[in-house]
User: Fold Dihydrolipoyl dehydrogenase from Neisseria chenwenguii.
Amino acid sequence: MSQFDVVVIGAGPGGYIAAIRAAQLGFRTACIDAGVNKAGDAPALGGTCLNVGCIPSKALLQSSEHFHAAQHDFAEHGISVGEIKFDAAKMIERKDGIVTKLTGGIKFLFQKNKVESLFGRGSFVGKNGDLYQIQVDNKGGKTVVEAKHVIVATGSVSRPLPQTAIDNVNVLDNEGALNLTEVPKKLGVIGSGVIGLEMGSVWNRVGSQVTILEALPTFLAAADQQIAKEAFKYFTKEQGLDIRLGVKIGDIVSDGKGVTVKFETDKGEMKSETFDKLIVAIGRIPNTDGLNAEAVGLEKDERGFIKVDGDCKTNLPNVWAIGDVVRGPMLAHKARDEGVAVAERIAGQKPHIDFNNIPFVIYTDPEIAWVGKTEEQLKAEGTAYKKGISGFGANGRALGLGKAKGTVKVLACAETDRILGVHMVGPMVSELVAEGVVAQEFFASSEDIARIVHAHPTLSEVLHEAALAVEKRALHG
Ligand code: FAD
Ligand code: NAI
Assistant:
């Protein structure tokens, strides 16, 4: 029977990174993963993120943005391109190529770092002294490996909607939404969260008429509401996304004619809409399916997450859990950094993750990004703050890009000037937010950002101006 110092279950961004870091630190490491490629005929490492999440969605967002720009934006640059056609199957093929390249890259990294990659479903069997026994099941049979340390990184799956089953033909979860080879004329989306907005944007840009049905009365409730409201206007008024808030979803019937959704509006009216395809994106739930956590007494909380402390320690000695299967935001970078930290803790190091300093990004156009506290949170906790706001409207780089819209807001402590939150909607703010993260990590003040030299002409000058505006000394405001 093979014995390892560390066995990781799951090779998503949490698990594969944990395995690589553990191997780098000198541990004999194996990583068990059950993921298969789109064709279902070969293992595919990388988990949700690489196969059916972050990476493929960003590939489609880029393709659809190019198509939209060619249709609507090129003319003002003096470029005429004649008849513009869109080939959804080709867009999906490009996306699949990126996925294959990256999932293959992890296989290479495992070989390079001497991580043993075991294909199959991993489940706890029991213990042999201090060692945990984990069974690996695949079509070839079952094997059992033993490990001193186990890192559970089994991720998450889409939250089901009781009214309908996902068939990924007409009623789609993220997998189906990423694989449509024809543009649906009418696309319905349930949930105006991150997936709803990103996938709704993709298909809207290439010609679908998109309706998003959201249960909450507030749009993007977790985001700073000034930024969320501005984004809502762009999405609905300029881009034509039909986002209906405060709806209650009733019966859903999928037949040969389409998918009919009955719902009650925020005004109490009963409505019914028929869509060619329906995406269900109402959140994700932790995945402990088939893990057989009970065999060793691994505890979960009432929502099914594996219980961990701030260091990702479970209730069992030497068993750790990271990423989407534990508390905290379901984000690839959070999973990755927990993976690194756990491997280092096993090696006796003392890494630290600041959970208050995790950036959030929504890759719509304009993008939305933030780090730290929102104004609503600061008000609720009674923290006195100052704010500085600046817009992209007169920023030279944004005008050159043809993307001169959006806002950056810096929130700083009224007493100490320490930055408490940075919120943005605008072009490439997915990249700009990193400056806010670094600033917060180093306890920077708004004055620090105001005094740092920002290149000209860049989008980062808008953050600079917002920081200057905190003390009411913006130069272009
Ligand atoms: P996962 O990536 O879910 O990986 C878990 C792995 O474990 C899978 O390969 C699974 O097959 C395997 N597994 C499960 N059980 C077992 C078992 N018993 N035995 C063996 N293997 C098992 N996050 C971002 O930060 N940025 C984004 O832009 C972004 N976009 C997203 C877009 C979409 C459409 C979706 C769905 C998600 C997106 N996310 C994004 C979220 C991100 O994908 C997750 O937060 C991240 O993948 C979580 O990583 P993980 O390692 O915890 O789990
Ligand atoms: P989400 O939590 O972002 O949004 C789900 C939305 O569905 C919420 O607004 C919720 O109020 C709504 N909802 C829930 N039940 C409903 C119902 N019965 N009827 C109507 N609306 C309902 O979840 P989503 O979009 O499914 O994404 C899952 C997770 O994946 C995200 O939370 C995020 O962690 C991750 N993700 C991250 C991305 C990024 O970082 N750019 C991109 C995509 C996903």
